[in-house]
């Protein structure tokens, strides 16, 4: 096979022999170098690894595995107005289940009685009943977020607070506009589930009759406007920051 080569050169380079050798070298195939066989720089012995666990992995007997399987069996679905509370049947959210280490949890022989959770304790002290709802980040809301008001900006500058400090709105029965606090909690859970409240997590404190909504100060005014519109709340709400108290009212 033949190939036509066009060579451009400067006027002062008139040595045809050098130009010919330069052109031949340009179209010559590159030499292929045989790579040496790879040799690892660490011991390549699967039976003698340089790093080993300090302790042996835990061993669970068949009896203990069967007990854990019974404890983790999901309870029957509860219908009715209280079915929205997804933490009701989870053991780790029960008031009488203490946190244990793995070794201690494996020695549990008596399952937790979920049917008696609503009964008052024998000593007469009523335990606090709380539920949580947590949102996930949504980048679609960034276009709807407006800059903070001048009053809130002045308060942040005076208190030397960053816009990403966590703050808390409080919903009480008095601002629910003839709504039940539990109904407001259900609506709030729907808003958080559909990512309409950025950076928010909420909890209902049934023992004191309040709902707490935590959010970044950067989104607090946007969150307040959504709460007023979607939950039909009346009157002003106070924005609280830990160790600083009320820093803003809206």
From TrEMBL:
The UniProt entry, under InterPro entries, shows: Shieldin_RINN1 (IPR039996)
Top-level taxon of the source organism: Eukaryota
Q: Specify where the region named Disordered lies, as residue ranges.
A: 110-130
A single BP term in Gene Ontology? negative regulation of double-strand break repair via homologous recombination
Q: Name it.
A: SHLD3 protein
Q: Which gene encodes it?
A: Shld3
